[in-house]
Amino acid sequence: MRLLTCIFVLLATTVNGQKQMAITVDDLPTVSKYHTSSEAQQNLTRKILRHLTAYQVPAVGFVIGDFLRTNSQPDPNRIKLLSMWLDAGLELGNHTLAHKDYNLVSFDELKADVIGGEQITKGLVQKRGKPFRYFRHPYLRKGDTQAKKDSLEAFLKRRGYREAPVTIDNSDWLFSRAYANALLVNDTVLAARVGKTYVDYMMNCVAYYEAQSDSLFDRPISQTLLIHANAINADYLDTLLARLKERGYAFVSLEKALSDTAYQSVDHFYGKGGISWLHRWALTQGKKGTFFKGEPEVPTTIEELANRN
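That's the Polysaccharide deacetylase family protein sequence above. Prediction below.
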């Protein structure tokens, strides 16, 4: 009977023999020091949506409310970028108003930040008859004390949200800063080198977290990948998606991915780290340091380029 159950779960988490992955995109509408004008931000959004559409990715985009404002006032041009996502048939979620670090603020402050994140986006989504149901934690931090973690979980549930986990964490934001710095000095050769290194790094992250999930669950699980609405994904997301398909992935909705029973795993972790849900589950199960070895690191050259003023 146990063998039959395992076979059923394995079949349920694959599509025609393919592995499953949900793509989630944080920091909408855009987060790029290179794309500062309204026209450039529209171009960045158009590129990302073109890649997602070409590979039939039912992504969820997570919106930071303050990114929809200029001088504290709603900016129609930035709000229009969300409409582009909705026009593409994609779903939007809440990434708070100001992306506050839960390690540095109280529960009441983060609660207000969650509610503030609804101000523009929720109405825009609901006018389309679409759900506004997912919440992505800023910095993937759920609380540095048990009380803060429990309070936030209970509040989100009362508010009608489902937490949007991340199994494949990474530092795409650091690569994008390096990429933007190369573009700002018109060094297209350097930018291309950063882009290639980025895709290779991301695939190494996928391989690492696949091994982690295989170790925890003795099977492939439906993965959730976190990326950002940034410059490097505007230009290299198509390459990344192609590599993921070559690795055997089918792209599924977040709802479909979360139907995997792996996401029912107990998470007792609280602390300052913003970490993958795989590591939350592993720590809850008592896994020790050796289990976590081998996580891909960002090359020093990328970090140095990213930190240039």
